[in-house]
Specification:
The structure is a single chain. Helices cover about 65% and strands about 5% of the residues. The chain is built from 45 helices and 12 strands. This is non-specific serine/threonine protein kinase. Its EC number is 2.7.11.1.
């Protein structure tokens, strides 16, 4: 660290933060200059003859930064200046250190003479020395050809020199390639990231050879240009790499002859905050604008408008006026051009709509103008996804805004009525336009269309009864492929029993169409709905299953068989009775609720009366049937006589059965299918797809189910099973009873969207930030299958095994606390904190850090795993915060043994329901305890963790409409939102995704008025915890459990 705790410049260099590094070095030079002046004033000229070590390092550091920023003239100023570090006054050692940057500067300034003198100081046996010598030879050829003498003899001599220079350049390139081959062979075996830089250098050498070929063979120039463009698109989208490659291309290709990569590079610089470099590129393109075609001129002007808009020096209103002026003056010209011109005009209209929205926000006054711009964009280029998406989304926002304003005015909201107020008519109009736009955007989408489809469903379910909306829905269904609906099958099934006739009719028609083309995708969700306790829902599902039997009867039979048998194995009679008796006991002895007790026991006795179907059920009936029937008789007598003694005798029998089952359940470690489900054991070579594997291209059928299920030791006793597919692979699952997995299924939808957003963003796509997902297949309302996450262990099991090996007590922290304060529960809050901190001070909390270290075979593997661990923890911290995810104890966090990534499981507590628990409410935004922090890098949270958190939250907020579409699907889903409606507080989602930080108040003012009101029956309001946590990441110590 520098004096005063300042961060050294080379730290910023390693992070590629060149502007910051340059600022630090310039500050050091100012300080050094001041100290030199003091020496001069003290009449000590001997101290001024040579630059100090500090000045030398600061100058070299500044030159490195200027090289990366492409500021060649400033490097030249340093070299030509009157300073002790200038080229003429520098000693030989300093010249060697400066030579590479000096040569690069001379290349950038197109000064061959100076470059020749600088290159002589770069060692010949290095890559830089050979590379810059080859570049120098090519530049010398270019300058030689620029001179036209008219003398034939001189022209012959010139041709000889060209051949000689190119031959020497080839020699240097071959030698440089030989140097790189050894380095690349070593790095390629280690990791892609370490070898990538060497690969870019290899590409630069190859393209230097192609530069020579480009100059000599005119016929191949177009082909080489296309090849260069394809290669650049295959590289990582980093300013550093693109700058290197474009400099090589510029040896023979001026920007006016190939503006496309330069415009793309300017955009890349702008997106990475390199505004000065972007401005320099655009300035260069503007200087040759008269030499390019009219279409390219317009592209350069648009790029300049984008640059000025993003540059903070320009007011947004002025930028918007300039864009309007450009469109008005060039609109007619562009609209008369070919498809490229119309496409360019469409992009301008989208920019107009977006900039108007950013400047003025969504208001009833500005909405018509914004929508008009987006409508024009769609008209100019009807095949462009972004235009239709923007048009649809803005209409969707208009629906919500007008609905909010209507509610604020106290007007009754009736989306089904054909008449009504003018505002209701506007809402329907916006709705029809939004539906048209979403259908078009979905049909044109080549990537993830989940957010558009979910928005469409929201409008469909809310306004589908209105005549014009219904007609637009019917018309739009023919526009998109049936495969687009596969991603929202859970949402369609959730509304299968709607009481709205038109909406229900259209859902039924769509599900029938899906069943004809993709019956495998629909069969599992339909079998769940067919088991519903709600008559209307069950009948609607059975109706669709009946229609499926007409074209896929065998598949339906197999699905019903597999589903019923898996449910049977998920919860055995022993477990059903154990759980039922426990609940009935609580109702009777705890709540004195006799009626509730009978309602709990009645279905269990009915199940017993139907008789056993497996050997396991038969053994249960033999073991407990007599006592349970006796208890039933006593219950019936009580119902006739209301004599409490009869009920007491019944509970004597129930209690005896309960005790025997309680002793038997711990011994249940495995289940053999021949005893618990012979039908499932006999099922072979089924048409039915392996759960969670359905792919439209290839269906992997169930070949057989493994004959033995392992019972996992936990409270709910889930089963681990294996299903063998028709492709010969083994698929492992966890079969869970007593849990509704439909919410896990929706969470996996959200994770899929987040992954696609992270992969599409330039800042996050290169850092392996995707969330580990697994398949979630509900079988009924209280059972289902979860895909087994391979090579993962829970943090609880890892820490337990580690402490057992090291002879450390598993609950050492708790023991220390109890030793200090045996009556801990009766202490005041401050006393509890003191005891807690005492336990922290007397334990290291580095168990997880050591586990990752001990389980890594090499230091490089350890470094990669630690980095993946830190980043994956950061990603899920942010996504979990947005989702309001709770119950993150060490048994719900897993560590991937190979990659080091953190994997989350069990998503039962979402939307901060854990915060409103009566006992032990969770008031933290996410889990970030001492043990988790200690396993990170040396800087703790102030490193990869913080940067990843900020990047992920930026991606989520930049794509807030997509994230909100999935989150709103949770809230509006009638199968999931009951607990949101019944809770004490309703969770505010919007401000987390869209605001969250104090600096975004402008956005808050735009949407705040609408979002504070009722939003489809759910009130979004600030929670006490949310108001505090939104200003930043809150880190709290919490005890490891």
């Amino acid at each position: 660290m520098l004096p005063g705790g300042k961060i050294p410049g080379h730290f910023y260099e390693k992070l590629h933060q060149w502007e910051e590094a340059k600022r630090v070095y310039e500050e050091e030079l100012i300080i050094e200059r001041q100290s030199r002046n003091q020496i001069r004033e003290a009449s000590k000229p001997d101290g001024l003859r040579q630059p100090s070590r500090r000045r030398r390092e600061a100058t070299l550091g500044r030159m490195r930064c200027l090289e990366e920023l492409g500021e060649w003239s400033l490097i030249n100023d340093i070299l030509e200046g009157d300073d002790v570090c200038s080229w003429t006054k520098a000693n030989e050692e300093l010249k060697v250190s400066m030579s590479r940057m000096a040569a690069s500067s001379a290349w950038g300034n197109d000064d061959v003479t100076k470059m020749s003198s600088y290159v002589d100081y770069i060692a010949r046996d290095t890559f830089d020395g050979l590379f810059y010598r080859s570049v120098l030879k090519i530049l010398q050829v270019r300058h030689l050809k620029a001179v036209h003498s008219g003398d034939k003899e001189k022209e012959v001599d010139k041709a000889r020199l060209v051949t000689l220079y190119y031959s020497e350049a080839h020699d240097y390139i071959h030698k440089a390639r030989d140097l790189l081959s050894t380095e690349l062979a070593a790095l390629a075996t280690e990791s892609y990231n370490r070898a990538y830089g060497a690969m870019v250098n290899v590409q630069m050498l190859a393209e230097l050879e192609e530069v020579i070929q480009y100059d000599l063979v005119v016929e191949q120039r177009e082909c080489i240009r296309e090849m260069w463009w394809k290669r650049m698109n295959g590289c990582q989208k980093t300013v550093q790499d693109w700058s290197k490659l474009l400099r090589v291309h510029s040896l023979v290709l001026e920007p006016q002859h190939d503006s496309k990569p330069w415009l793309k590079f300017a955009s890349l610089c702008r997106r990475n905050g390199r505004m000065a470099m972007s401005a320099e590129i655009l300035k260069k393109l503007q200087s040759v604008i008269t030499e390019v075609s009219e279409g390219v001129q317009l592209k350069i002007q648009i790029a300049s408008l984008k640059h000025d808009w993003q540059d903070d020096k320009l007011e947004k209103v002025k930028g918007l006026k300039r864009l309007r002026k450009f469109v008005s003056s060039n609109g007619v010209k562009l609209s008369q051009c070919r498809s490229e011109g119309r496409s360019l005009l469409s992009k301008c209209y989208v920019m107009l709509g977006s900039w108007t929205e950013i400047t003025y926000g969504y208001t009833t006054e500005k909405l018509p103008e914004i929508l008009g711009h987006y409508r024009e964009a769609c008209n100019r280029d009807s095949k462009w996804y972004k235009a239709w998406h923007a048009f649809a989304y803005t209409n969707f926002e208009a629906v919500l805004l007008y609905k909010s304003v209507s509610q604020e005015a106290g007007e009754p909201h009736n989306p089904v009525s054909s008449g009504g107020s003018s505002r209701e008519v506007d809402i329907v109009r916006f709705c029809v336009d939004a539906i048209e736009g979403f259908f078009r955007s979905i049909s044109l989408s080549d990537g993830n269309s989940l957010q558009d489809t979910l928005r469409l469903l929201t409008l469909w379910f809310d306004y589908g009864e209105e005549g014009r909306v219904y007609d637009s829905l019917v018309k739009g269904l023919d526009l998109i492929k049936i495969e687009n609906w596969l991603q929202v099958i859970p949402q369609l099934i959730a509304r299968i029993d709607t009481n709205r006739q038109r909406v229900g009719k259209l859902i039924h028609k769509l599900l029938c169409d899906i069943s004809k083309h993709h019956p495998q995708a629909l069969i599992y969700p339909l079998t769940v709905a067919a088991k519903s306790n709600v008559t209307q829902r069950r009948d609607a599902a059975l109706k669709i299953l009946d229609s499926m039997k007409e074209h896929s009867p065998k598949l339906v039979r197999q699905a019903m068989l597999v589903s019923e048998e898996l449910i049977r194995v998920a919860i055995l009679w022993h477990e059903l009775w154990h759980e039922g008796l426990e609940e009935a006991s609580r109702l009777y002895f705890g709540d004195r609720n006799v009626k509730g007790m009978f309602e709990t026991l009645e279905p269990l006795h009915q199940m017993l009366e139907k008789g056993p179907q497996t050997l396991k059920e038969t053994s249960f009936q033999h073991a407990y049937g007599v006592e349970l029937n006796e208890a039933l008789e006593w219950c019936k007598k009580y119902q006739r006589t209301h004599n409490v003694k009869e009920l007491t005798k019944a509970w004597d029998s129930y209690y005896h059965v309960f005790r025997r089952i309680s002793k038997q359940l711990p011994m249940l470690t495995s289940l053999e299918l021949q005893y618990v489900s012979p039908k499932l054991l006999e099922a072979r070579d089924l048409e039915l797809a392996v759960p969670g594997t359905y792919d439209t291209k290839e269906v992997v059928g169930i070949q057989r189910v493994h004959s033995s299920f392992q019972v996992i030791t936990s409270k709910q006793r889930p089963r681990k099973l294996s299903i063998y597919g028709s492709n010969g692979k083994e698929y492992q699952f966890v079969l869970k009873g007593h849990e509704d997995l439909r919410q896990d299924e929706r969470v996996m939808q959200l994770f899929g969207l987040v992954n696609s957003l992270l992969l599409a963003n330039m800042d996050t796509c290169r850092h392996n930030l995707t969330i580990q997902r697994y398949s979630a297949i509900p079988l009924s309302t209280n059972s289902g299958l979860l895909g087994w996450v391979p090579h993962c262990d829970t943090l609880h099991s890892l820490i337990r095994d580690y402490r057992e090996k090291k002879k450390i007590l598993l609950n050492i922290e708790h023991r220390i606390m109890m030793r200090m304060a045996p009556d801990y529960d009766h202490l005041t809050l401050m006393q509890k904190v003191e005891v807690f901190e005492y336990a922290l001070d007397n334990t290291t909390g580095d168990d997880l850090a050591k586990i990752i270290w001990f389980k890594s075979p090499t230091s490089e593997v350890w470094f990669d795993r630690r980095t993946n661990y830190t980043r994956s923890l950061a990603v899920m911290s942010m996504v979990g915060y947005v989702l309001g995810l709770g119950d993150r104890h060490p048994s719900n966090l897993m560590l991937d043994r190979e990659s080091g990534k953190i994997v989350h499981i069990d998503f039962g507590d979402c939307f901060e329901v854990a915060m409103s628990r009566e006992k032990f409410p969770e008031k933290i935004p996410f889990r970030l305890t001492r043990m988790l922090i200690n396993a990170m890098e040396v800087t703790g949270i102030d490193g990869n963790y913080r940067m990843t958190c900020e990047r992920v939250m930026k991606v989520l907020r930049d794509n807030k409409d997509s994230v909100m579409a999935v989150l709103e699907a949770f809230v509006y889903d009638p199968l999931l939102n009951w607990w949101l409606m019944e809770g004490k507080g309703v969770i505010h989602i919007w401000y987390r995704v869209c605001i969250g930080r104090a600096g975004n108040r402008q956005q808050k003012s735009k949407v705040g008025q609408r979002k504070r009101h009722q939003h489809r029956g759910v009130v979004f309001q600030r929670t006490p915890g949310g108001a505090r946590q939104s200003e930043g990441i809150e880190y709290r110590e919490a005890r490891e459990r």
